[in-house]
Design a protein that fits this description.
Blueprint (H helix, E strand, L loop, with lengths): L6 E7 L5 H10 L3 E3 L4 H12 L7 E5 L8 H14 L3 E7 L2 H11 L10 H17 L3 E4 L5 H12 L8 E8 L10 E4 L20 H8 L2 H23 L4 E8 L5 H14 L4 E6 L10
Parallel strand pairs: 1-3, 1-4, 2-3, 4-5, 6-8, 6-9, 7-8
Helix pairs in contact: 1-6, 2-3, 4-5, 7-9
Length: 292
């Protein structure tokens, strides 16, 4: 980070996706948190944060329940701040509609978007925030995260360790449970030989050596990895050149238990050997017994 500028993190996202939790975690980590900031004040507060000599070097602006009402103004303000501060990042929090609906019904809170039904409010907010989501430096899908897992993810991304450079997350998942909504690059590996059909491997996972060897040593997998790692050799430098801070690679098979797990581990090691910080996550490894 440039020592003459404050580091600014904009936290936005779907109502019910975890803005308040993220704010609490970041505050505990030593960030100065300004919560529920109206869109009309974003540019003014951001301008103060950009100026050198301020007491705090890590500042979080949480755009809350009033943000959608001034959305056009908000986009303009964020574009202006982004142009003037290389140390500004946007974190977008998301979750599936059914989970957001369940969370609101559980808390009995009023949704900030007025619509005939709660589901309509969620759909309207998603449409409104679509353009903002596309501008985010990192998206966190909180659908399957409990409070502690969510906190750990925020800490891993915005902790006190060296925040410079590209951070990569490699995630395995099962198509049976949906494509991760926070992925930048998604690869379908359901065409590879499936350990599920081997009786001695079915009840194991891609973390087991026997399953990993079965997957990795097949001719089809080796051909795939040669091509895919070649693609990463192009994509990763491209992300760096564009000053991107985060890259999430999602590897999917049917159930997220065998092939995608083994390959996520392999690809995670490949990226780590490039000298990058890597997190490997297996989203669906413990879900069900379906073939994968």
């Amino acid at each position: 980070m440039d020592s003459n500028q404050n580091e600014i993190l904009i936290v936005v996202g779907m109502s019910g996706a975890g803005r308040s939790t993220a704010a609490d975690v970041l505050e505990d980590m030593g960030w100065l948190v300004i919560d529920n900031l109206p869109s009309s004040l974003v540019e003014k507060i951001g301008d103060l944060a950009i100026r050198s000599g301020n007491e705090y070097l890590k500042i979080v602006l949480v755009l809350g329940r009033s943000a959608p009402l001034g959305f056009g103004e908000l986009i303009t303000a964020l574009d202006d701040l982004k142009a003037r501060s290389k140390d500004m990042k946007i974190l977008f929090l998301d979750a599936t509609d059914d989970i957001l609906l369940r969370r609101f019904e559980g808390t009995r809170r009023k949704h900030p978007i007025a619509a005939p039904t709660l589901a309509d409010s969620i759909h309207s907010e998603r449409d409104i925030l679509f353009a903002l989501r596309s501008k985010a430096d990192v998206v966190i899908d909180t659908t399957d995260l409990n409070v502690h897992q969510f906190a750990d993810k925020v800490k891993s991304l915005f902790g006190n360790d060296d925040s410079s450079g590209l951070k990569v997350q490699v995630m395995s998942f099962g198509y049976s449970y949906g494509i991760p909504i926070d992925a930048d690059l998604v690869m379908d590996v359901r065409f590879l030989p499936n350990p599920h059909w081997e009786p001695t491997l079915r009840d194991k996972t891609g973390l087991d050596k026997s399953v990993s060897e079965y997957v990795i040593n097949s001719t089809a997998t080796r051909e795939f990895l040669e091509s895919f790692t070649g693609l990463l050799d192009v994509v990763i430098p491209g992300y760096k050149n564009e000053n991107k801070s985060y890259l999430t690679i999602a590897i999917g098979c049917t159930g997220g238990k065998h092939r995608s797990v083994a390959l996520a581990e392999f690809i995670g090691n490949f990226v780590e050997n490039k000298g990058l910080k890597v997190i490997v996550k297996h989203r669906d490894i413990n879900k069900g017994l379906e073939s994968n």
